[in-house]
## 1
Amino acid sequence: MVYVAILVAISAFLLRSLISFSAVYRRVQAERDVLANARGAMEALGLEIRSAKSIYMPTSVLSAATGQLSLETPLNPNINETSTYADFYADNKRLYLKREGSAASPITSENVEVAEFLVERVTAGARESARVTLTLTSAVKGAAEASSTITAAFTPRGNY
C-alpha cells in the first residue's frame, strides 16, 4: 500500500509538471512568433520606406488604427516608367504589402494578429518621415497569449 501511495504521489507530481511545462512552452512559442513577426514586418517596412522617393499621400490612410501607407518608389518600375507604388496595409488581422501590378502578399504569419498598424507622417521643413506603430498579438488566446508593440520612424531616401 505504501509503495502504491508513493507511486501515485510521484505520478501526480510528474503529470502536474508536464502540464506546467507544456503551458510555459506554448507561452514561449507565442512570444517568439510575435517578436519574429514584428521584427520581420518592421524590417520590410524600413527597407521599403528608406528606398522610397516619398510617401504617396492620395492613397495613404494616416493616423488610423489600421491604416495604410502608400509609397512612391523607384524599385522595380513598370516598363517606360521611373517609379512605381507600394502599399502596406492591415486587413483580416494581417499586414500586407501590395506592389503596383502585383498581388498583395502577407508580411505577417497566421500565427499572429495585427491589432494596430498606425502610420503618422512627420514633417520637418521640407523633409518627411513615416512613424509606424505596429502592435501584434498571438493568434492563440488564453494563458499563452503574447503581445508586442513596436514604434519606429523611417525617412524616404527622396527626403535626405
Note: Residues 127 and 160 are 7 Å apart (CA to CA).
## 2
Amino acid sequence: MEELRGRIMAAAMAEAETSGWYELRLHRVADRAGITLPDLLREFRDADAIADAWFAGALAAMLAMPEEELAGLPPSRRVEHALMRWFTHQATHRRVAGGMLRAKMHASHPHHWGPAIFNLSRLMHWALEAARLDARGLARQAEEVGLTLVFLAALAVFPRDDDSLTRTRATLRRGLRFLDRLPRRT
C-alpha cells in the first residue's frame, strides 16, 4: 500500500512540475503512475489529499530531527533548524508546494481555509516541540504567534528561492531572533 501511495505522490509531483499544481489533473497522475482512477481514489480522495500527504512527509522529516543536532543552540537556531528540515524536505518541488498552498487559499476553495488554519497552528506547535522549547504562559503564546508570522514570511519566499534555500533560511534567521529574548524554564 505504501509503495502505491509513493508512486502516486511521485507521479503527482512530476505532473505538477509540468502543469502546475492548479492545473493538475488526476487522470494524468493515474496514467503516469500506471494505475486506474479507482486505484488512485482508494489512496487519495482528491488532489488536496495528495497535497496533505506531501506536507505530512515534510512534518515527519522535521520531527525526525535528532535532539543531538540542537545541543548548545539558542532557541532561535533550534527552531530555525527544525523548520529548515521542513523546507528542505520539499526543496526539489518548492514551486509545486507553493502552488499547493495557493490552491488551498483560492477564493473558490473556502472549504480548505479552515483546515489550512488548523494545520498551520499544528505545524507551529510541532516546530516548537521539535526544537525542544518549553516556554510557559505569555512567553509560549508569544512563541506561537511570532513563529507563525515568521514562518508565513519564510513561506512567501520559499517557492522562488534557490536550491540552497538561502533566502528562506535568512528570513527565518532574522525573524526568529525574538525567541532568544523570551523567558525560559530553568
Note: The chain has a mean pLDDT of 94.
